Amino acid sequence: MKGSSSVAAVDIRPLWARLSLAYERHTPNHRGKRTLRRALHAVGERRSRPFAWRMRNGSLLAISPVEGAMFEGTVGWTCFEHGVWEPHVERCLRELLRPGDVGYDIGANLGYFSAVMAQAVGPTGRVYAFEPIPETFQRLELCRSLNGFEQLEPLQLALGADQGELTLHWDPRVAGQASAHSAHGEVVSVPVRRLDDLVSSGRIAPPRVMKIDVEGHELEVLRGSMETLSHSRPAVIFELNEPMAARAGWARTQVTALLRGCAPYRFFMLEPNGRVPVELEELDISADRYCDVLAVS
């Protein structure tokens, strides 16, 4: 298995983590319960390394002891507590991808959806997972190694409309909390490439499906992908986060115009019970922080 040496640096379902989860699930809420859980996770934190945790779909992810105990609602916390992340998106990916297909996970984070894609396309397919934050990228590489996914290729870079560099703000305690449109957290400069350049040069194969979750940078990714969208017409799953989009200075009408300028895309909102046809301009998500949208042509 490629990357097997990195697996040695990970605890596989350690006892302290199993005790923490059992304590959460089987004891009533009481004063000091959160403090005791944090104490258990401090045992893992002292080892200064993530631990491997199995998801409901059978894949393994590298979870941080800190986020697994403290940061409710984040990818790491949710995957540790529940073994699943955004099941409506996972179901859609599995419906769209077939063995031998090519998928892009843009904003791959820990690799939950990278693993879903790798399972769906199988050993004859290919998954390119883009994650620019160095520390999070290490966890993505662990996902590949832990699961033996030879078909998964992590790429440590961001995608955008122009080649260059991008300044991101991120919270080192929580994987995935990184954005070019936030003023909070530590600062890191990451390389940016145009998706069209990577495809036209032959560096990566054209996609059947693209999943994009990049904290407000979605429009820039799409602007650098217009040739690929026109020629390959992949299905595109993207997060529509109105507050983040406003900070980035774009509106959903621009996404509609760009995608429909490339191909006759139709839009669906992904909900727990399935896909609902929508027009982005008419979509009311004022009460929600974000929603996940599927575009197909």
Annotation keywords:
15 strands, globular, eight-stranded mixed beta sheet, four-stranded mixed beta sheet, 13 helices, 297 residues, disordered N terminus, Rossmann fold, 2 domains, alpha/beta
Could you characterize what this model shows?
This protein is of the alpha/beta class and 297 residues long. The strands form 3 sheets. It has an 8-stranded mixed β-sheet with strand order 6-5-4-11-12-15-13-14, with helices on both faces. Helices cover 38% and strands 24% of the residues. Helix 7 links the parallel strand 4 (102-106) and strand 5 (126-130). Helix 2 runs antiparallel to helix 3 and helix 11 (226-232) packs across helix 13 (252-262). The chain has 2 domains: 11-82, no CATH class; 87-296, 3-Layer(aba) Sandwich (Rossmann fold), CATH 3.40.50.
Write the layout of secondary structure elements.
Blueprint (H helix, E strand, L loop, with lengths): L3 H4 L3 E2 L2 H12 L6 H13 L5 E4 L5 E4 L1 H6 L4 H8 L4 H10 L5 E5 L5 H10 L4 E5 L3 H14 L4 E4 L2 E2 L4 E7 L7 E2 L6 E8 L1 H6 L8 E4 L5 H6 L2 H7 L2 E6 L1 H7 L3 H11 L3 E6 L2 E5 L12 E6 L1
Helix pairs in contact: 2-3, 11-13
Order of helices and strands: HEHHEEHHHEHEHEEEEEHEHHEHHEEE
The helical percent reads: 25-40%
Instruction: Tell how many strands the DSSP assignment holds.
Output: 15
The radius of gyration over CA amounts to: 19 Å
Number of helices: 13
Structural class: alpha/beta
Please give the CATH class of the largest domain: Alpha Beta
How much beta, percentage-wise?
Answer: 15-25%
* Strand line-up of the largest beta sheet: 6-5-4-11-12-15-13-14
| CATH topology name of the largest domain | Rossmann fold
